[in-house]
Queue: 2 jobs
Job 1
Amino acid sequence: MAAQTSDGHLFLVKKLGGLISVIIGCLLTAVGVTFESTDTIVIGVLFLMLGAVLLVLKIMRRNQESSPG
């Protein structure tokens, strides 16, 4: 069973924020490639990176709490 944490809402925000950032990043990157807009591609890639970082932070935190010791 998962332990209840006082900052459960923060985990949810990181998870949803990461997923939404990845989706927006994919869409912006695809639009930028379609219309050959360098600015849109860069913004899309930045959103992808932000989403990946948020998801990695959430996963690292979850694994740190569940490790024995």
Job 2
Amino acid sequence: MSQTKSNIALGVASAAFALTLYSHFSSQTNIEAAQVKQHQSSVNTRQVSNEPAHVNEASKSNSYDEMDSSALIARIEYLEERLLDIENQAYGNGGNSDVMEEAILAVLEEKERKERQKRNEDNPVYGFYEDLPKDYDLKLKTDPEFASKISQDLKGKVLDQTLTPQERLSAMGQLQMNMYILNRTQDEMFDYETVDAVLEISRNSADDKLKVQALEVVAHSPVVDSRIAKSLQDIIEKEPNKYMKTMAAEGLMGQYYQAGESNPEMKQQLANEILAMYDNATSSDVQAVMQRLIRDGELLEQIRRDAGR
């Protein structure tokens, strides 16, 4: 659009310049005409035999005047037509500008879509965030039917083995978030069955990234169940990946903390299993993982008391 404005300015300037030239040459022609008249007066005293030459010179001067005026007027008319063409082109580019803007927006939207898809692939557990409505939290808290339906749909996706692991993990991440928003640790939609389905993804996936992300979901799950604790213990003892060992150990400690006063029997059982791995002399890796987690002497003493030792 700046180029069009420049062209319009150039056209206007050219027209103004042409008008200036026209005025200049008109003045110059008048001067020359006066000079011719003066010359005519001076030669009136000459012989009649000289009159053909005088008439011929005056005729040339008039012809020159008419020629310059016509050329300048034609030039001005051309510049005016050119200026009109530039203005029409500028108005026409307004429509083209709208088309160009739409094309640019389409490219940006496609770029954003691909970036969002890549983010979802890189971290499927939290890929749902960008698609949530702004009032999602409030609606969960104020509309029980909405919250129940959403949770039911999400649980169905977690358990649906026809979906991709990424889709199932995303559904689990959203379901777990819903429970935190509603301040619930578990209910009929968020239970051992859903957590175990995610554990299966971690156990069976050939994608190391999915294995890790699925285990992270389980390790931070608020669902307390002895079967979950046993699965985490198996990972600590058998998984060669040190990060996954550590993550499973954190999940086991989380099960112990959350058992609290609500399930003293399970808490005692978990305390004994944690101490057994902490003191494990047969596996230095398992022992090192647990000892890194339990560095506090007071925490160790608390676990021993909960174990009944």
